Amino acid sequence: MRIFKAKKRDLKEISQIFREESSKSPYFQRWTEKTALEKIKKAFRNDDLYVIINNKIIGFIDCQKDRKKKQIYIDEFWLTKDFQGKGIGGRIMIFIEERYKRLGFNTITLMANRKARATEFYKKLKYKLKHEFLYMVKRLK
Nearest Cα to 77, choosing from 54, 57, 100, 60? Predict the structure, then answer.
């Protein structure tokens, strides 16, 4: 398994992984091919977008930098189903933490769905729940 900065040629495959994995429980996100690709293209232009490769792309992580606050926000981190629960995610997070620490960043923030396995994954990596943030949604009818 290797991690590299994404290249333009990777974007379609990344967007397919994003669409497929984010559509599953508990997320149930509905992205069209076009909107998913637009989101990934924006991340490619503005953020540090990495691909995880094991003979082919098996996942990606999108890191948004706030240099002023010396903070990284992980906007998206997805692995294909066959590679979840195998320790790969932990190795990727260690890579990201070490990389950005060397670059002078001191905080990583992210959001995780309370019902997702990812919540326990991040807790194992010593990420703490911050109660000052409240995610609110209103459906417009």
Answer: 60
